[in-house]
Design brief:
By secondary structure, the chain is of the alpha+beta class. The protein contains three helices and nine strands. It has a four-stranded antiparallel β-sheet with strand order 5-6-4-9, with helices on one face. It has a three-stranded antiparallel β-sheet with strand order 1-2-3. A two-stranded antiparallel ribbon has the order 7-8. It is globular, with a radius of gyration of 16 Å.
Length: about 110
């Protein structure tokens, strides 16, 4: 497919649909971030979600137990919210219990 054909088949700004011999492949733009530092086992899912939902709607906020054993991650409804959150995290503006968190795109 040509680039213009690919763009014409867009489902939304976050997804692109590609037809290849009667198969449909949907590619998602990166809308998920992985929290790699700044949370501990006592950090609640709700506190993590509360800090990050100011950047946009959240589909899933995953935080169970010890983050060293089960890495927390957050999937936003759109990629622009994930990027806004990552930018603020990189600037040290997102704190949980007074500690700045660190994250990366997943």
């Amino acid at each position: 497919l040509k680039y213009s054909q690919l763009l014409s088949k867009c489902l939304s700004p976050e997804k692109i649909q590609v037809h290849i011999r009667s198969h449909v492949i949907v590619m998602s733009v990166r809308d998920t971030i992985e929290i790699i530092d700044g949370v501990h086992s006592g950090t609640t899912r709700l506190s993590l979600k509360t800090q990050l939902e100011r950047f946009g709607d959240i589909d899933i906020c995953h935080k169970i137990g010890d983050p060293r054993e089960d890495t927390p991650w957050v999937r936003f409804r759109d990629a622009s919210a994930a990027l806004a959150a990552l930018d603020a995290i990189a600037r040290g503006e997102v704190l949980i219990d007074g500690v700045p968190i660190k994250a990366q795109q997943w």
